[in-house]
Amino acid sequence: MTILRSTYDTNGKYVKFLFQLPPGSQGSPLHYHDTKTEIFKVLSGSLEMEVGEKGNIKILRPGEALEVPAGMHHSFRNTSEDWVTFTSEVRPAGEFEHFLRSLYGLAIDGKVNKEGTPTNLLQFALLIEKADTIIVGPPVFVQKLIVTVLATIAHFLNVDKSLAKYK
């Protein structure tokens, strides 16, 4: 991941990333954002996206873009035998940049499991809160309750300071 336009650069209007996924990479589980729109644009290779209804698959090729409005279910992955390079623009930026910096930083520091999920549940809750992300499947009320409780505990215990180095 490379940050092309930071939250700071755009005064919070958006943040833009460049991603390169190797063949067979799972990018994200099916999810949505309450307040964020994402725009995916493929530069090389092909990006498989699941958008809207479960099972609705779209393959984006070089030059093609897809805008995913807030509330729309989506996921992405590279099911091809070639690398895929694409950009993702998130509007408004909110804390999405800090979410990705922290997630990648924890991975580099060996603090995630094989699926890329932080092993510390309190850090995970803080990241989900920053990403404004709801995973499709588990009841939304339960997810929000668990994230809110764990994030509150994390703030109380100053766990958020452990993510500050990734800003």
From TrEMBL:
Residues 18-82 form the Cupin type-2 domain. Gene3D superfamilies: Jelly Rolls (2.60.120.10). PANTHER family: PUTATIVE (AFU_ORTHOLOGUE AFUA_8G07350)-RELATED. This is Cupin domain-containing protein. Pfam families: Cupin_2. InterPro entries: Cupin_2, QDO-like, RmlC-like_jellyroll, RmlC_Cupin_sf. It comes from Nostoc paludosum FACHB-159.
